Amino acid sequence: MLFTKAVLDGIAEGRITVAYRRWDRPRAVVGGRQRTRVGVLAIERVEPVDDADLTDADARAAGLPGRAALLRVLDPRPDRRTYRVDFRLVGEDPRIALREDAALAAEDIVDLRRRLARLDAASTHGPWTEQTLDLIAQFPGRRAPDLAELVARPTQPFKTDVRKLKELGLTESLPVGYRLSPRGRAFRAARPA
């Protein structure tokens, strides 16, 4: 689920613990987790609701001013059903602590090299991990389309690859672009010359 900045702020403050989405089938699962900018959400309930039953109070609980605003933001396709998703904030995104951990032991470096090699081997466009880390190190804060253009790649697949590096704690997103995390910088510094 995507959330606006205002809704994420409300989640962080504990004011918002519900979302409404219109889907062809439920896209959230009870017991599932979702990482957001403000932390990890635990999905506690997912149930279909009728639009006619939605109230101003339901909308306010989801961070919107009223029922009309809620109906406006729902997917307009008639083949979709509205679902209420209850969640709670359960903690920080674990990638934050991971990316800040620059004290890499030899086995951490070996493990990261193995994981990057696996990503390269699975790629349909050839090895990309080292090149992408080098590019982000060279141009911190540069927009993803600009970075992708430098390596003649489409933007969306490039961004998907950067997210894979983020999962390993090697990069972090900025308001615009990316930079190497402390862990990413330590990993690069440990590369053989």
Keywords:
193 residues, alpha+beta, Arc Repressor Mutant, subunit A, 2 domains, 4-stranded antiparallel β-sheet, two-stranded antiparallel ribbon, 6 strands
Q: What portion of residues is helical?
A: 40-55%
Across the major sheet, the strand order is: 1-4-3-2
CATH topology of the largest domain: Arc Repressor Mutant, subunit A
The radius of gyration computed from the alpha-carbon positions, rounded to a whole number of angstroms, is 20 Å
Indicate the overall shape: elongated
Main sheet makeup = 4 strands, antiparallel
Mean pLDDT: 93
* Total count of domains: 2
Uncertain runs are none
CATH C-level of the largest domain = Mainly Alpha
SSE pattern: HEEEHHEHHHHHEEH
CATH architecture of the largest domain: Orthogonal Bundle
> What gap, in angstroms, lies between the N and C termini?
43 Å
Secondary-structure content class: alpha+beta
Q: What's the gist of this structure?
A:
By secondary structure, the protein is an alpha+beta fold.
